[in-house]
C-alpha cells in the first residue's frame, strides 16, 4: 500500500466546511485526517488519472456548526450541501459518474455522518464511508465501509495519555464513569452504580478523582455505547493499558478486518450486564495477562501522531480504505477494467 496507494483530493470547496475539520474534540479525526493527508502527501496525487480513490473532503461536524440550523431537526441544509458538492465534482470530472461513486470515499466522526451520506443513493450504497458511527442497524456495511476510532483529542500531543502500570498493580476489576445518555448506560448504572467495590461504575466521578488514574488502576474498562455505538473510551482504555469491555448493539469495531478484537477485548451484549462481575472474574489471570499484553501491542494502531508514523491510526484508516478499494473494478470508459 505505501508504495502504490494514491488518493486524489477534490480541490473544490472552501473551509471551514471543506478541506477543514475539528482537531480537538470527539470528532477530531475529521480534521486530523484532512490535515495529515496534506502533511503526509506521499499518498496524495495531483493527477486524478493516477488515483485509486477520490476523497470528498467535507466535514460533517463543520456542517453541523455552520450549515445546520440549531435545534431545527432539519437535515435538509446538510444534505443539500453534500448533493451540491457531489454534483459539482461530477460535472467537472468524469470519475464519479464513471464508477457511480464506488472509488470515492468520505470520512466522518460526527453522529450524523451516516445521515449525511444518505443525501445521495450512490454515496451510501457504493462509496466507501469511513465512519466512527459504524452501526450496522443504520446501514453500515463492513464489506465496503470502514469503521474508524473515535478519539477525543484536546491537544495535538499525546504526552501523558499513553501508558499505565503492570497488571499486578491494577487493583480495580472494572471501571466506568460517564453521562447517562443512550439506552445501555442506564442499565449499567442501575445494576452496578455504588453496588460493588470491584466494579466502579459512576455517573460522575467523586471530586478530586482522576479519570485516567482510575483507568490505570483498572484491569477492565467498561465501554458502553451512548446515543450512538462509538465511544472514545475504547481508545482511552487502550492508551491506558486497560482491557476494553465493549457493550453495544450492532457495532463494528475499528479495523476489525485485520484486528481480532476478541483477543484483546471482552465483547458483551446488553443482556450480559447483570452478570458482569461473574463474567470478568471467570477470566483466568493467565488469560487476562495475554489480553493485556495484546492491548499494549495493538494500541500503536490507535495512536495519533503528528506527523503520522507507520502503523498508526492515520495509516490504519488508509489501509482499511485501500483494502476496500481492492474489491472494486472500474471501467475506464474504453472497455478496460482497473482495480
Account of the protein in words:
- This protein has 2 domains: 7-154 and 306-334, no CATH class; 167-302, Glycogen Phosphorylase B (Rossmann fold, 3-Layer(aba) Sandwich).
- Helices cover 31% and strands 14% of the residues.
- α1 links the parallel β1 and β2.
- It is globular, with a radius of gyration of 21 Å.
- Residues 334-339 have low confidence and may be disordered.
- It has a 5-stranded parallel β-sheet.
- With 339 residues, it is α/β, with parallel strands linked by helices.
- Belongs to the glycosyltransferase 47 family.
- This is Exostosin GT47 domain-containing protein.
Strands, helices and their partners?
Elements: E1 7-9, H1 28-39, E2 53-55, H2 60-66, H3 76-92, H4 95-99, E3 104-108, H5 113-117, H6 121-125, E4 128-131, E5 146-147, E6 172-177, H7 185-192, E7 199-202, H8 211-217, E8 218-224, H9 233-239, E9 243-247, E10 266-268, H10 276-281, H11 285-298, H12 313-325, E11 330-331, E12 337-338
Parallel strand pairs: 1-2, 2-3, 3-4, 4-5, 6-7, 6-8, 8-9, 9-10
Antiparallel strand pairs: 11-12
Record keyword descriptors for this entry.
single chain, 339 residues, Rossmann fold, 2 domains, five-stranded parallel beta sheet, Exostosin GT47 domain-containing protein, Exostosin_GT47, signal-anchor
Amino acid at each position: 500500500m505505501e508504495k502504490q496507494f494514491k488518493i486524489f483530493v477534490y480541490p473544490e470547496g472552501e473551509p471551514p466546511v471543506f478541506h477543514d475539520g475539528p482537531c480537538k474534540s470527539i470528532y477530531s479525526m475529521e480534521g486530523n485526517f484532512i490535515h495529515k493527508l496534506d502533511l503526509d502527501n506521499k499518498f496524495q496525487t495531483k493527477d486524478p488519472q493516477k488515483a485509486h480513490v477520490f476523497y470528498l473532503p467535507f466535514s460533517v461536524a463543520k456542517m453541523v456548526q455552520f450549515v445546520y440550523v440549531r435545534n431545527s431537526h432539519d437535515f435538509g441544509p446538510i444534505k443539500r450541501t453534500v448533493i451540491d458538492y457531489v454534483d459539482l465534482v461530477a460535472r467537472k470530472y468524469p470519475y464519479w459518474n464513471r464508477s457511480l461513486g464506488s472509488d470515492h470515499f468520505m470520512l466522518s466522526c460526527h453522529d450524523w455522518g451516516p445521515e449525511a451520506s444518505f443525501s445521495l443513493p450512490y454515496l451510501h450504497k457504493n462509496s466507501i464511508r469511513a465512519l466512527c458511527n459504524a452501526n450496522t442497524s443504520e446501514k453500515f456495511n463492513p464489506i465496503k465501509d470502514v469503521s474508524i476510532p473515535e478519539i477525543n483529542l484536546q491537544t495535538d500531543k499525546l504526552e501523558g495519555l499513553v501508558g499505565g502500570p503492570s497488571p499486578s498493580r491494577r487493583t480495580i476489576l472494572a471501571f466506568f464513569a460517564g453521562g447517562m445518555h443512550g439506552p445501555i448506560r442506564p442499565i449499567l448504572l442501575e445494576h452496578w452504580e455504588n453496588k460493588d467495590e470491584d466494579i466502579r461504575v459512576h455517573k460522575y466521578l467523586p471530586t478530586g478523582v482522576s479519570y485516567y488514574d482510575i483507568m490505570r488502576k483498572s484491569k477492565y474498562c467498561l465501554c458502553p455505547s451512548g446515543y450512538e455505538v462509538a465511544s472514545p473510551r475504547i481508545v482511552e482504555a487502550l492508551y491506558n493499558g486497560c482491557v476494553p469491555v465493549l457493550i453495544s448493539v450492532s457495532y463494528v469495531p475499528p479495523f476489525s478486518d485485520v484486528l481480532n478484537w476478541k483477543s484483546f477485548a471482552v465483547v458483551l451484549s446488553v443482556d450480559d450486564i447483570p452478570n458482569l462481575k461473574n463474567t470478568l472474574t471467570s477470566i483466568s489471570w493467565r488469560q487476562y495477562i495475554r489480553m493485556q499484553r495484546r492491548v499494549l501491542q495493538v494500541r500503536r494502531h490507535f495512536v495519533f501522531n503528528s506527523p503520522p508514523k507507520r502503523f498508526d491510526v492515520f495509516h490504519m484508516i488508509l489501509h482499511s480504505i485501500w483494502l476496500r478499494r481492492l474489491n472494486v473494478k472500474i471501467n475506464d470508459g474504453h472497455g478496460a477494467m482497473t482495480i
